[in-house]
Amino acid sequence: MTTTFTDAFLHTAERHAAWGAEQLEELGRVMPGGPWTADLEQCTYQSAGRTIRVGLLGSYDLSERSWLWGWANPGLRGSAVVAASERIAEYGRRNGVPELHWESVDLSGFGDPRRAAEALAFVGMGVLGAPGYIGEAAGPETRVYFAPDDPQIPHARLDPITMPRFLTTGAGLFGHCAREVASGYFTHHGVPVQMGTDRIRTHLPGGSTVEITFDALGRIAAVDSTLAGS
Asked: Which InterPro entries does the record cross-reference, listed alphabetically (predicted)?
């Protein structure tokens, strides 16, 4: 029985942790939640008066405490709505991340299986570079997870003011490697970094500079920013 994710999965997760947290906040502003409907044949999701195009990431069975990737659902194999999850499986095979290419993942051994399911959806979002993910109850024992694929959902931009918060938030999500969290965040935003033994430095567009230092345990010790013009 699996009781934790593999190192390969956690490494992938950390690369997407900070920008993923940032993007989910952006998604929440556009799609605040509420009553919803979905048309899997049309690849659409509707809520808060907005209809967007989505792909089905997967589903979580609360009673079995198991995750099923969308492409592995017998009734949906080969359909357009699971094409995104097929790309996740291909990434998993290519990069040796078993949780991303197994048809299903047994989460019953995790201390919090529901949170583990959210982690799978989160990392699926990250691998796709999707502008967030959406989880909804599809019955008393099932939750379904969608990845938006629609220009109506904006991609969050790097903001020097909020950046430290998202870096520390991201570092706390999986707690595996804060350096990967920071470097993954800047890579996502197309910002080159200078890697040191205990720090990362970068120059942001617009002239601001950032230095992130790590303690002896590899945790983020400080995020120091010098804003352009200050």
From this structure: DUF6882 (IPR049249)
Rg of the chain (C-alpha set): 18
> Distance (Å, rounded) from C-alpha 27 to C-alpha 79?
25
Q: 22-35: string of b/e by CB count within 10 Å (b at 16+)? A: bbbebbeebbeeee
**Tokens found for residue 78:** 């080969």
Residue whose C-alpha is closest to residue 3's, from 103, 116, 100: 116
Q: What is the pLDDT of residue 76?
A: 97
This prediction has a pTM of: 0.95
CA–CA dist 151, 52 (Å, integer)? 9
3-state secondary structure the chain: CCCCCCHHHHHHHHHHHHHHHHHHHHHHHHCCCCCEEEECCCCEEEECCEEEEEEEEEEEECCCCEEEEHHHCCCCCCCHHHHHHHHHHHHHHHHCCHHHHCCEEECCCCCCHHHHHHHHHHHHHHHHCCCCCEEEECCCCEEEEEEECCCCCCCCCCCCCCHHHHHHHHHHHHCCCHHHHHHHHHHHCCCCEEECCCEEEEECCCCCEEEEEECCCCCEEEEEEECCCC
